Amino acid sequence: MSSYQQLIDDLLQRSQPNFTGFPSKQLAAEFADRLFQFLFGTRKKRLHGSLEIENEFRLLQSHLQTFLQEVIHEAKIIQKITEDFFAELPAIYDVLQKDAQAILDSDPAAKSIEEVLIAYPGFFATAVYRFAHQLHVLKVPVLPRLLTEHAHSQTGIDIHPGARIGHAFSIDHGTGVVIGETTVIGNNVKIYQGVTLGALNVTKGHANAKRHPTVEDNVIIYSGSTILGGETVIGRDSIIGGNVFLTYSIPSSSVVYHKSEIKVKDNNPFPEPLNFVI
């Protein structure tokens, strides 16, 4: 057990300017928001002219380098990661446009692509996930989690940066969605609020194993469903109904649903004892 003096020493060490044990959440949030704004800015904040775009691009590169210095202390590695990240930015932008179009095409409430870009929490969470995933691929420690946790705090959607998600991915409403680290999701998949793609076993001994499910192409998963396990595969073109709890694989073109029973009776007189416990 730590003594009071050890606690004071530890807090003093963390207050030193050169202590880098805790990367800045603020830098992570600012970078995610700034990059999102750069790619999908609203009309008021949209950049005008190639010079303004190039200047903002360089500022974003500088921002990322400062962000990387939180956890990496070799200038050459920081430079290489920055170059590699921004080299992938056009591909990230392309896949995000497909994500936005998928939301517009599948949600009757969406009236325009601009509405999706600025008002859909599922699109924002997906965009930040794709930024974070690229840093995860480049083996940047900790910082990808800070990016997705920023999106989580803003939207209620928790996507681990290690998950692999195909194009035309859409999350409708979104609050309560959880997508675990080793989840694999194909193309044209749509999920609704409250869906969990999680692990059956959460012991540390399985840290390097595939713990989360695979969802193949063209699958819809409705609200409140929970799908668990690294060996669980949802076959392509399947539909998972609301509130389903699934821990085993299903073949392609399956329909899985949870059937609950609701009874409506006249309450005067009510013939059965009420056993509710408050």
UniProtKB/TrEMBL annotation:
Keywords: Acyltransferase, Amino-acid biosynthesis, Transferase. The keyword Transferase applies. It comes from Filimonas effusa. The keyword Amino-acid biosynthesis applies. It comes from the Bacteria. GO terms for molecular function: serine O-acetyltransferase activity. This is Serine acetyltransferase. Residues 59-125 form the Serine acetyltransferase N-terminal domain.
